[in-house]
Amino acid sequence: MALEPSVLESRFTDLALASANFGFLLPHEPLLVLHGASCEARAAIAPAEAVLAARQFGEVLAAELGHRARVRLPTGDQQARLDLLSRAGMLPGPVLDAFNDLHRFDGGAHDEREVAAHLVGRCFALAVWLFRALTGDPEPMTFVHASASDLQVLAQRVAALEEDLPCLRREFDQRVAPAPLAVAEREQLIVSARDAAYEPLREADISAEVQRRLAKAGWDVLGAGEESQLNRSLGCVLVPRLGGGLRADMLLTVGGQVVGIVECKRDGIDLAEAMEQAGALAKAPEGSLPWPVWRSPLPYRYVSDGRRLLFCDANDPESHARLVSGFHQPRTLARWQREAEADGVAPTYRARQAAYLQLQDEGFDQLRIAQRGAVRAIEQALAAGQRRALVQMAVGSGASFTGVFTAYRQLHYARAGRILFVTDRKLAVHQLIAQLRQFSMPDGGRPLDDVYHVQELTAHGLAPSASVAVATVQRLSAMLAGTPAPEDGSESVAAYETAERQAHSDATPLEVSYCEALPPDAFDLIIVDDCHRALYGQRRALLEYFDAPVVGFSATPTATVLGFFKGNLVESYSYEQAVADGVAVDYSVYQIQVDGDRQSAFATPVDAVGMQARRSRRARYEDLDEELAFTVGQGPARAVPSERLAKVVTAFRNALPTLFPDRMQHGGGLLAVPKTVVLAQDGLHADEVVERVRDVFGAGDVFCRRITPRDAYAAELLREFRTTPQFRIAVVTDLISGNSDMRVMECLLILREVRSAAYYEQLLAMGTQTISSAELRAVTPGADAKAQLVVVDAAGASRHLQLLVNVTDASGQRGRAALERLLHRATDGRATPQETAELAIRLARLIPALSDADGAEIRKLAGRPLQELVTRLLDSVDSDHLASLRRAGGKRAVEDERREALYPLTEDLQLQEVLLDLYDRPAPARGTTSGSRGRRQDKTVGRRLAEFVEQSGPFNSAQLWWIEKIADVVATETRFDPAYLDSIPFSARGGTDGFLDAFGPDAAIDLLGELRRALA
């Protein structure tokens, strides 16, 4: 029988009073007091029971942490819980070690009592850590060794509660169920947990530790009697010995002048308050010091307790103190001095954001609206002193180019010293470097690399001349944390795939140390290009090491990512918006199910509209952190087994005429098969899939091939898949390519379990990028336009489905009938939000196949382009947009928004007929200039080309091919973007690499600039 609440409370109070080592946890979690005291009381008399109590202590503490951090944890698997908490950044190294001891320490040859005593100590260490993390109290706490009589009393009070333990545990499990938590609060908890993991320094050791860290950064600490030797080194540290009045603990000099102060404070002191005191000390009037003073007040101020280091640059506008991982080098402060003296209006990097960037818009005409918004939002965040800014951009909407453009503006206008780009794949490094080097600066057309040297970060560090560095997460880990150098192919494998494929991949939090080749002040800005959430969780120390603002780009920001950026999502461009703008295509999802030996069946999955319509984008992103929570520890991901592969592939082949009716039903043989990517489990599984595909389709070796990240010729095979008609189906085990490389893909066949919702979205993003009709026809003869991505799921991956609406009959007579039905519903005023969303998606499917004449007619009848029509429809059912409208104008504003979005369609029957007629005729070719205007453009470009060849030649036949093809693009597109070099027809000759090989790297970049100017 359960105890009465008042009796229970009284007994827990008695237990806490009897337990000097665990009683202080009573206000935070009574069960921890019970299990900790039980372990302590029985360690000597019943060690086996004490070990069990220690493990229960660890399990309850892990569940409590998951509840407080809102990390969804699996039940019954402590190792999986610890892995997930560690990946979220909740468990610093020493804490994870203590947890692991409680979970699996066997003691080896040690006596049972010794093992129990050891685990009591580990429980106490974790209890102290939790107490400090929750209260911020840093006071040292030592274990109290109780007498035998005290332990007997403790055991009696434990026994008085243990009879009610099952009931207490059930109540605890209900209490720690997942609940919402603001990501900023979660981030604060992670920081507190990290700070609480280390014992505070003794007051006598703090000054010595601060001096050691100064010396590590290159400062020369002058001893007693050496105060006159300020010019002995560029940067010197004085420990002033002055009588009377206030004085700083240490003074920093650069070039013989005092420029800053360092204050040492006892651990636990509020460093923000200490910084205010340091500010008062920095205002000491000139002449009060016996050494030359650069400026008064002294601008560079540091406060430290030996572990944490707070820094403030008073030259910043509305200066804010910030935590840094180490002291800045003397040469860095010297550079800051020079910049401040040269520009009194904007003396710092942050000041230049507001003074210059907001006034400049040169080059913005080459950006899409979403890209312009992202660049402006980033610059406004930096000007406001925000150290972390997150941009959400749908894959294919130009996030990489936005990052490159941002870097150019930071270098050119804000005069950043050096910028770091971080990605989690080697191939992405090469793509970013090529994009940076080919970027044509708007203020004259010169390549970026001509003025700002771009370099890949290697084990040898960076050249002093490097203005932009590009690095993988693995390379940074090797340099800052001493992990093995990434020479085993790991840089070719995405972190998404590592988490997906390994049941218990290493979840140990990364700890970094000072690296002379890459000091904390090496960069002024860090731009992260859509890395896996592990970088913001267990590897977050890599970013926190540098004293630089971090700008992150992510297509699917999870709770871990949002938490690291403290919820500072400065700009968002969703996948739905990208579809409406014609930047991405929609996707449809089908499901293949095999039931025993029965014939495979083909069906559509359950639509996810209901859930999607009720939840905001941020809520969906935060919920993506459920990754792996329910499958971790269950072994390798499940896959379609060998004996069922033939049935699944046969079902897929038989369904193609239904999925692509306009193409497959008109012949074309194997070349009519859409470019398809198949996701397999591993290399062996991929080989089996390749065999089955070739057998079922009756095709040769070139039709279907395997491409895995560690294959020696992966890049070459990938290029062939993108550029040759014969290679139709690629079997992969991971996201092996930059997403922009897969726009020829129209179908995704999933043959293995996908454990992560974010990974699932990344897979879909590979195929949702748009492609011009001409480029698509070059690799898929007979294709008119890419209207959608078809996803065929044979492994249950569609449980992650986040569709706004699943439109699986968007073409032909069925598509026309569905559109007609929706238009009638809208005209009658009876269209539901779900039907409005479906109407938008069906209209969006028309965008890729829209001719100029069709677009003009729709604009005339509707008063706006089709893209804008679709955008307004999607906005009218978007939960985020509607929430802002409801706050501003109430329910009436929401109703007006939906009515105005539908108005052009409901009031103009002629517009409805035009839209319906588009389903009745084949799509026209796009991307060509028609009529006399096109012929005039061709003649003009041809004349300019002949003049260029005559003046700049001679060229060999291979070089002339490149020049003439570039001229062909200019004749139709009016301008040539260097990114075109990686598309057809250039990709057939090696893309950017082939162009560089044909002319030589330096000459190629110069020639491209000259040719673009000549043809313009």
Key descriptive features of the protein:
1016 residues; alpha/beta; 7-stranded mixed sheet; 7-stranded parallel sheet; 40 helices; 21 strands
Indicate the percent of residues in helices.
40-55%
List how many beta strands DSSP finds.
21
Number of helices, where a helix is a run of at least 4 consecutive DSSP H or I residues: 40
Assembly form of the protein: single chain
Find the structural class using helix and strand composition: alpha/beta
Mean pLDDT: 83
The largest β sheet comes out as: 7 strands, mixed
- Give the overall shape: globular
What does this structure look like?
There is one protein chain. This protein is of the alpha/beta class and 1016 residues long. The protein has a seven-stranded mixed beta sheet, with helices on both faces.
In short:
With 1016 residues, this protein is an alpha/beta fold.
List the helices and strands and how they pair.
Blueprint lengths: L4 H14 L11 H13 L4 H23 L8 H10 L5 H12 L7 H24 L12 H15 L2 H11 L7 H13 L7 H14 L3 E2 L13 E4 L11 E5 L2 E8 L6 H12 L17 E5 L4 E5 L8 E2 L6 H13 L6 H7 L13 H15 L4 E6 L5 H14 L6 E5 L2 H13 L9 H4 L1 E4 L9 E7 H8 L14 H7 L23 E5 L11 H4 L5 E5 L4 H6 L4 E5 L1 H6 L5 E8 L7 E3 L5 H6 L2 H7 L18 H18 L1 H4 L11 E4 L3 H15 L6 E3 L7 H10 L5 E4 L14 E4 L6 H11 L5 H7 L8 E6 L18 H16 L5 H12 L7 H11 L3 H10 L3 H29 L1 H9 L13 H22 L4 H17 L17 H9 L1 H15 L1
